[in-house]
Amino acid sequence: MITDADSEFHPRDPDDRTWTETMFLPFAIPDEGIFGNVYVLARPNVGIATSSILIGKGFCTQPYEIAFTDPQVHLPCPESFAKFTLGNGLSVNAPTPKEYDVSYENALGACSLDLSFRALHEPFDPGDPEQNPLLAADRSTGDSRHGDEWENGHFEVKGHITGNLELRGKKYKVDCYDGMDHSWGPRTETGTRSVAWVSVNFGPELAVHLAVLINLRDGQVRYEKLRFGFVVENGEVHPVVDADIRAEHTQLLAINNHIRITDARGKEYEFFGTAISSHPWYNFNPSHVSYQGVFRYHWGDKVGYGEMADIYGLDYLAERMSSHGRARGLNA
């Protein structure tokens, strides 16, 4: 169960140098084809933090096509994770997991933003068996595709994101719905991860989050086992118990998808998505890449938006796609 204190750093073994806490906030301006990310990774026992601010417009298959990116490493770790300012110009104020205010001012004047996130519901805890009925089966597999990132403390929460963005002299209003998260615990960063982070949002009426394992075989992306997920319907949270995702890709970037889910009530949903802005995000973590995009979704006659990110450890990709890959053509 998540409490108001969970936006802060968590109790930890002070000798564990792998202890990591992260926060991630995506946002979009669909009419402009703009999709952005704010990310912080802190290692309080080492005293350092990294941060990546990335904003893409349209379809970018190469990093140099992305409109703006500012990755900073070895920043001094803040004393608090609920209220801090980093040396890259990013400030965060999060008195609870349901309230995040984020501002950023680029040192070169290329980008600034001021965003407010307000949750639509109580945060979802995938490590709580009362909230996640798939937990026992998920943790018993020992599948290396899980990685460490969501194996310890973690919450996901959907909300309304509003504010302003200035990007290379152009000003935009931000008014969207999406999810944000915070993870904490030991993290080895071995690069074996292969999982999709999927967000579907139709305002206060309906939102969906899914975490699904990926099998990359012969360069083809297949979405397999659901790790956890939830539906938020008019503020009420219901765990997802089954999900099927199909998608077409170009250079590992999903360009369209078809999602079917069933929640714990037995209620079924079906969504059809088309990417409107996509890019590879290499610099949020040196051992991973996220092939991510914001999608326009159709649910019956309703239109919504949300991020779909296929997150890979670089070693996972190298084993399957490089000239020296030992798992080329193999499953999982």
Report on the architecture of this protein.
With 332 residues, this protein is mainly beta. It has one domain (19-321). The protein is 4% helix and 59% strand. It has helices spanning 135-139, 314-321, and strands at residues 19-29, 34-43, 48-57, 68-76, 83-85, 90-96, 99-105, 111-119, 153-167, 170-186, 194-202, 206-217, 220-233, 236-250, 253-263, 268-281, 288-299, 302-313. The strands form two sheets. A ten-stranded antiparallel beta sheet has the order 4-3-2-1-10-9-8-7-6-5, with no helix packed on it. It has an eight-stranded antiparallel barrel with strand order 11-12-13-14-15-16-17-18. Strand 6 and strand 7 (99-105) form a beta hairpin. The protein is globular. The protein starts with 18 loop residues before the first strand and ends in an 11-residue tail after the last helix.
